[in-house]
Amino acid sequence: MKKSLLGISMITITCLYCMLAAVIILVTLLTDIPVIVGIITSIIILILQFLISPFITDVVMKWFYHASFDNQLPEYLNNFIQEVCNNHQMNFPKIGYIDDGAPNAFTYGHTKNDARVVLTRGLFELLSEEEVKAVVAHELGHASHYDMLFMTVAQLVPLLLYAIYEIFRSRDNSNDDKGYGALISAVAYLLYIISNYIVLGLSRTREYYADSFSVEETKNPNALASALVKVGYGLSTSSTSGRSAAKSNALGIFDAKTSKALVVSSYENGVVSKDNIKQAMKWEQWNIWAKWYELNSTHPLISKRLIAISNRSGEYNQEPFINFDLVKPESYLDDFLLEVLISFAPTLAVFIGIIVTIIVGASEGNFGLCIGFTILIATFFGYLKFRRQYSPKPFENRTVKDLLSEVKVSHITSVPCTLEGTIIGRGNPGCIFNEDFVIKDQTGIIFLDYNQPIRIINKIFALFKSQEYFDKVVKVKGWYRRSPVPYVELKTLEVDGKEKKIFTYGLKKAVYIIFAIVSVVVIALSIL
After folding, report:
1. 139 a catalytic residue
2. 241 and which of 120, 128, 250, 383 could share a cystine (Cβ 3.0–4.6 Å)?
3. 495 DSSP β-pair partners
4. CA distance 528 to 525
5. Which residues are CB-contacts of 199 (< 8 A; sequence separation ≥ 6)?
6. Hey, where are the domains in the chain?
7. Distance separating the N- and C-terminal Cα atoms of the chain
């Protein structure tokens, strides 16, 4: 497995550096500019960043996440980590702990011998011992495979390509580059985009291999699959197993680097409900937005990882954890195309309006009328998008499980909902500057987006007020969306009979009304 991963990594990195070399050769042939200085500077900066970033992250973890690195691990986990390290000639990692109920885990460092693995309290409260070991093994897999080093080397290419693009974009009107600046910047930017997607693809591949490492070390693929359902989707327990583990010297540790930790409950009376998992998988398997989000993500879709892990269950005499056998009732292509149109319509309206204003306004001499109609049409399409994002339908009582089964939902299309549950932690577990929450109801856990119109208000709330909601039973109203993380943008947050209002929706609506009035006034003045 390692040799295969090494081969994939080396081929990918070779392709990336061939692209970089092609641009450098192009620069050398077409110009007299010594870009080597910029390239060497970028390389030095990246190397320094790689060398010092783990130590900076240590400080950030302690100061801003209140992480501690001197906790005693539960015996079962300590013994497991020691066994894995012995098997792979690794030093025992530095273990970090963040006291937050949202479950998550991540690793960072230079190599497998100075890795840090961070876990949250929520990981121990919601997962069984076998599931905790599976998650930790996944993180140790990243360290064992030198993922931090390989990804740093890979990410250097888009960084340098973008630097070359910026250099020649700014020199486009000079004579020093013999007029080739525009060509070089265009090629560099195109390859920058391509290389970014290649790096993201490499990252997703390494996630699959980290899963594979976990399966081989635990010899329990179903434990990893179950943990992914809880940590990745949000189908959590109703449960006892996690809490008993937490009370016996349990350690919890943090990360929310790519997804804002959520968990969903696929348990009914203590037994995992495969139907609930399948319902949660529908969006990723059927909604076209899921493919787009995955293309732009460092991680594969959870459903794909679950299927890949389940395919290995037979090797360890287990029944496959999940067999996604639901039949897609429709294509969902029409919904996707409509949402794309709605998403870009306001921008297109402005662009077309500017062209019409330049052409018609110049010939007819009435720029005011053209500008007024441009604002009016752009406002109309913008409001259509707004209405889709903030659906006017009633805020019906829903559960996390119900919301996750929705397929026709995205960052454009919302589902108004009312949820009741307990706030168990921050959206970014442990981060004192994060104003968002994770709520747990009887069926699972989901991310709550607290978003006041002024950002500084959000940070003040995070620092001084958000703690008041921890471990409290709350009732929230908001709009459920996926992007691809399932989340609810809050409208109101009620606790102990007191309602906290979020004014973003009202302000956005007011802005559209103001723009509509302004456009009508401009049109009227132009006609008169």
Report:
1. yes
2. 128
3. 474, 498
4. 5
5. 16, 151, 154, 155, 157, 158
6. 2-316, 333-406+408-528
7. 76
Instruction: Give the number of other Cβ atoms within 10 Å of residue 59's Cβ.
Output: 9
Q: Is the pLDDT of residue 179 over 70?
A: no
Q: Are 97 and 119 in contact (CB under 8 A)?
A: yes
User: What is the fold of 333-406+408-528?
Assistant: OB fold (Dihydrolipoamide Acetyltransferase, E2P) (2.40.50)
Angle formed by the axes of helices 288-295 and 333-364, nearest 10°: 70
Q: Is 424 exposed, middle or buried (0-12, 13-18, 19+ CB in 10 A)?
A: buried
Per-residue model confidence as pLDDT tens digits over 199-235: 999 999 999 999 999 999 999 999 999 999 988 776 6
Q: Which of 220-224, 294-298, 475-479 has the lowest mean pLDDT?
A: 294-298
Cα–Cα distances in angstroms (integers) from residue 282 to residues 212, 274, 304, 324, 340, in the given order: 24, 13, 11, 9, 20
Alpha-carbon span 363 to 341, nearest angstrom: 31
Pick the closest to residue 120 from 242, 266, 293 (CA basis). 242
How large is the average pLDDT for residues 267-294?
A: 82
Per-residue pLDDT band at 35 (split at 50, 70, 90): low
Token pair for residue 448? 């709550």
If we measure between CA atoms, which residue out of 437, 78, 472 comes closest to residue 250?
78
Helix (H, G, I), strand (E, B) or coil at 327: coil
Residue 68 tokens, joined: 């501690």
How far is the C-alpha of 481 from the C-alpha of 413, rounded, in Å?
Answer: 7
Tokens of 374: 């441009």
Is residue 103 within 8 A of residue 119, CB to CB? The reply is no
Distance CA 260, CA 426 (A): 9
- 152-156, 380-384, 478-482: least confidently modelled range: 152-156
Alpha helix (H) residue ranges in 171-266: 181-218, 221-228, 241-247
Candidates 125, 129, 131, 139; catalytic one? 139
Residue 463's H or E segment, with its range, is helix 455-464
